[in-house]
Amino acid sequence: METNPYPGPERPVPLRFAALGERLTWLSGLVLLLSSLMGWYVGSGDGLTISVIGWHTGVLGQLVFFIGLAVLVLVGLRQAGIELPATVPESLVVIALGALATVFVLIRIITIPERFLPADGRGVGIWIALLAALAVIAAGSEARDQLRPEGSAWPARSAAAGRTACRRSPWRRGSRRRARPARPLGR
């Protein structure tokens, strides 16, 4: 058997998007970011067809853009090896950003700003933004499920262990009463 004493050059480590939650987070964050650059309102007036992109709808449209950017930054930082502190799970941050984006998009679906009155219909971009915001929530939930150890359920402790821990809580120490001896019935 001959072995090669001169091994070839090492291959660069590819980006790690093996987990479904990570891929879904990256993709939904990108779609959310790009959806704010799509037409959210459409309409016609005086023979012209008007389309208003999400960025021009005001602060909420711009916040949707920056929420999508924040989701991409979170994924990029994780790829670079920089993680959030253990007390702040990344999946929780992703779910919160997705919920915030969903609320902003729903506000823009329900109310059309008056300055865009000829554009009184909803464009395809706002529906893509809503789906992307919901996908960010689903991605955070999927990433949370991937962190769970095999065969265990959330929460990790059983309900009985939680009750025991609650009884031993330092907050309840002062509220315990000592049992009084029973008095005889005749007195």
Secondary structure layout:
Layout: H1 20-35, E1 39-45, E2 48-53, H2 59-79, H3 90-110, E3 121-122, H4 124-147, H5 159-167
Antiparallel strand pairs: 1-2, 1-3
Helix pairs in contact: 1-2, 1-4, 2-3, 3-4
Structure summarized in a few sentences:
By secondary structure, the protein is mostly helical. The protein has helices at residues 20-35, 59-79, 90-110, 124-147, 159-167; strands at 39-45, 48-53, 121-122.
Structural features, described:
This protein has 187 residues and is mostly helical. It has a domain of 129 residues. The protein is 49% helix and 8% strand. The chain has 5 helices and 3 strands; from the N terminus they run H-E-E-H-H-E-H-H. It has a 3-stranded antiparallel sheet. Helix 1 runs antiparallel to helix 2, helix 1 packs antiparallel against helix 4 and helix 2 runs antiparallel to helix 3. The longest helix is centred in the last third of the chain and has 24 residues. The N and C termini lie far apart (101 Å).
Tell me what portion of residues adopts beta-strand conformation. 5-15%
Could you tell me the number of beta strands? 3
Query: Count of helical segments?
Result: 5
Question: Which class of secondary structure composition applies to the elements?
Answer: mainly alpha
Instruction: Using the CA coordinates, give the radius of gyration.
Output: 27 Å
Unreliable segments of 5+ consecutive residues: 156-170
N/C terminus separation? 101 Å
Whole-number mean pLDDT: 80
Shape: flat
Order of the strands making up the biggest sheet: 2-1-3
Give me the strand/helix succession: HEEHHEHH
Main sheet: strands, sense, barrel: 3 strands, antiparallel
Helix content: 40-55%
